[in-house]
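Box S2. Input/output pair 1.
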Amino acid sequence: MAIIIAGSLTFFVYSRLRRNAAHPRLTHVVAAVRSIPEGIALTSDDVTLIDWPAEVPLPGSYTKISDVVGKPLIYPLGAKEPVLERDLGVEGSGIGLSVKIPEGMRATSVRTNEITGVAGFLYPGSHVDVLATFTVPGTPGPVTQTILQNVEVLTAGEKVEPDPSGKPQTVNVVTLLLNAQDSQKLLLASTQGSIQFVLRNGADQGKEKVEPTRLGELVTGQAQPTPAAAHPRKAAKRRGGMHAAPMPPPQVYVLEVIQGDKRSTTKF
């Protein structure tokens, strides 16, 4: 009896497992009909329902076509690739590059060249630091300062996706993802001097305090103090308590205008 019962149970379980393997339980998920580039709003002609094993859950997937129609596509999709929540932007957020800009952020473009663009190795998704070299009024020599750290590159030229082959390519314009305040810093720095991108490891998300580098440090190898205008009273104390010498009177310029037989002068 034990052998008969064990054999019956084994046969029943084996038959059930084989039947489930031959006819797995399926569900439906929304997928792309064909390859679809990023930046467009999906229509009902772009997507379809495909079978998906119910035993393999797909987080972020959709089961109704109406749930994805009208939403912009942030990343490209291949044919029959399921549409996930992470692939879509908010309905009404626009098309093209605008769908990749999170709320509160800005896409800011600056002109670049082979040197500024790290020899063509700047790709969409890269992270960079931005250095600016300029001359501060009233100070001797130029200064280089790290003005932005860990900034994401949105586009390199007209490309919003990295080159699959990784081949370097020089571009004329680089677009960075910045908040409003950092956008102002970048645009001001680009008008005051030259800027340079410094490529960093994408896994390095840290920021550090970086002091500006002045021209004198390249010669002495030591940090130079920040020049500051001396207060007249403090300057007098450093000279042994003597009062500062009086300032010379401003120079007066005379402009003489001759119109025929008439003459006039103006001083300024």
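Box S3. Input/output pair 2.
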Amino acid sequence: MNRRASLGVAALGAVLAAGLWCLRVPEHVAAFSVLAGGAALWLGPALMGFRRLLPLGAGQSAVLCGLGLGALPLAKLAGLLKVATHHRPLGAVTFALMALGLVLGSTIVAARALGWARTRGGVAARWIGIVALLGPLTLLLELAIDSRTQAGLVDVTLGVGVTCALSLVPWSAALRGLLAKAGPILWGVLVSVAFASVFGDAIEPAGRACPTVAAAVAWVRP
């Protein structure tokens, strides 16, 4: 995937993440106009640099897909241990051991599945990528809706996680070509609309929904 297509993937990731952040406030459209561009502003260059410096090989893809498959079970396991375990050190050790086994198992399953997919063509690989996306996307949706997770680190992780997950999808040649053509335009539109919206009333609901990302464009407002 070239840099122009990576910019398109970053724009799609920003749109999806902003849509989840907007669920926190009733002014969905106003907040989205700022947050989508605010996220795209830094996700685009970050993803282009990542793809240039670290091309994903078979091993990296297997690890990332394994983490994707294990994300939701890990979150549910952590929640269960937090409720059921009153001895925190014991609960932490139990979670660490079970998480290690779960991640290793998920990575082995992903590696075998990706190896099988390479013998079946691009369609099989795309379905494996989609399945690997379901866990983190479900978890990120829960995080976005929960008002207690509005810390900046979680918000940034949400945007990065969605974008990196989308970059793992084995896009077809036709879709990569479309992303390369339309991606930079979509990215530019999102960023431009965000900066324009800052001067209206949209910045206030955007700041309540996701203050860290809104700050990326709010600095232009006097």
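Caption for Box S3: Residues 3-218 form one domain. The first helix runs from residue 3 to 21.
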